[in-house]
User: Fold this.
Amino acid sequence: MSDKKYIIVTGGAGYIGSHTVLALRNNGYHPIIVDDFRNANKDVIERLESLLDEEVIYFSAACQEEPRLRGIFSQFPIHGVIHFAAYKAVGESVEKPLMYFDNNFGSLISMLELIKEFNVKHFVFSSSCTVYGDPKQIPVDENSPVSYNSPYGFTKKVNEEMIEQFIESVSEIKAISLRYFNPIGAHESGKIGEEPDGIPNNLLPFITQTAIGKREELTIFGDDYDTPDGTCIRDYIHVADLAEAHVAALNYLADANDRTTVVNVGTGKGTSVMEMVNYFQEETGVDLNYRIGNRREGDIPSIYANTSKANNLLNWEAKRSIREAISSSWKFEQFIKEFRK
Ligand code: UFG
Assistant:
């Protein structure tokens, strides 16, 4: 039997998934991408191959296509699964809750069935700080109360609980849910990054697309919040740091005493929207066209992570600065403009 540590990465062609594939490979793991490319471009694979200078193993399949996935699980001895594949837009989930339930619950159920059937011992799940809703106290730690304010948030919260109950019913499988804060940034090469379909929901892609001329202006959603400059505060984490947290999570699971756990993955530092805009202008020298608009429905004033558990349990901490994240995103925006010509 091969002693290679094969890791199935669902959604491995997506934004966080593709960076995690690089981090896994750079740390001795052998990622296998399972992605149906409904929300990612196939050319991500070629770009990953050029960065890694080797072929990438990938299968074009959806998580709910169990017979196809069974073929993949029987072809390789699988050490672990990292399950990214899911819908993730808060606003869209409010309009199409059933689509979110079908995909986000259905995909997880398939993956749990498969890891049980093939005796895969390690499972890493993409959760979100959205499970904290609008927190009463910040920073939030893993014991802070959980709630939800969208169908998307509901799926993440229930998914975490589904994993816990599933783990009780089996022996030997260990799982971890990583609660991501706000991922930003791109690979240092500028060749892999976030390429949203249509109008970006998230702040930094909107900023870079405005700066490059794809969007007219950025609207800052409200400057009358109860924060020092009136704009919302988030914990922006470099996607390369977030990717490395997945490697740390797999390493942790191999020797973990607890069979399920949840861990915040953030920087522990809050940054306001206005600060982000200023950092972007300072880093890139581009004058950003922006205006202050109304609040966006559903936005919370402020959240950032207590990261002690990630530091102690996973032996991981965010290393890259917010400015590095911003300049790598800008590099990627310029790269992808040329690439798509
Ligand atoms: N913002 C703007 N203008 C924009 C886009 C965003 O001012 O055009 C502001 C938002 O109001 C917010 C901040 O920038 O204050 C960050 O917004 P994002 O949309 O980038 O991120 P969110 O914190 O709203 O959402 C993220 C994830 C969700 C997750 C949520 C959990 O994208 O998947 O965190 O809180 F559910």
Summary: Residues 88, 90, 128-130, 182, 201-203, 206, 218-221, 232, 234, 273, 296, 299 surround UFG (CB under 6 Å).
